[in-house]
Amino acid sequence: MEYLNVYASKLIPERELFASGHKACQGCAPALALRYLLKAAGPNTIVCNATGCMEIISSAYPDISWGVPWIHVAFENAAAVASGVEAGIKALQRKGKISKGKVNIIAIGGDGATFDIGMGPLSGLLERGHDVLYLCYDNEAYMNTGIQRSSGTPKYASTTTSPAGDVIPGQQTVKKDLAQIAIAHQVSYVATASTSYPVDFIEKVKKALATDGAKLIHIFAPCPTGWRAKPKDIIKLGRLAVQTGLFPIYEYCNGRYKMTFDLPFLKSIKYYLKIQGRYRHLTEEMIKELDEDLKQRYRWLETLARETKEAK
Amino acid sequence: MGKRKGIESSIALADAAAMCRVDGISAYPITPQTHIVEHLSEWVNDGKLDAEFVPVDSEHSAMSAACGLSSVGARTFTATSSQGLALMHEILFIASSMRFPMVMAVANRALSAPISIWNDHSDIMAERDIGWIQLFAENGQECFDLTPLCFRVSEDKRVVLPSLLNFDGFIVSHMIEPIEYWDQEQFDAFLPPFEPQIRLDVKNPTTMGVVGVPEIYYETKMVHHDALRKAKAVVKEGFAELEKTVGRKYEVVEKYKADDAEVALTILGSLAETAMTAVDNLRKKGHKVGLVRPRLWRPFPDEEFIEAVSNIPVLGVADRAYTFGAAHHPVASEVKSVLFNEEKRPKVLEFVLGIGGRDVKVEEFEEMFMKMIKVKDGAKPFGIEYVGVR
Question: Which member of A61, A89, A120 has the closest CB to residue B72?
Answer without folding.
Answer: A89
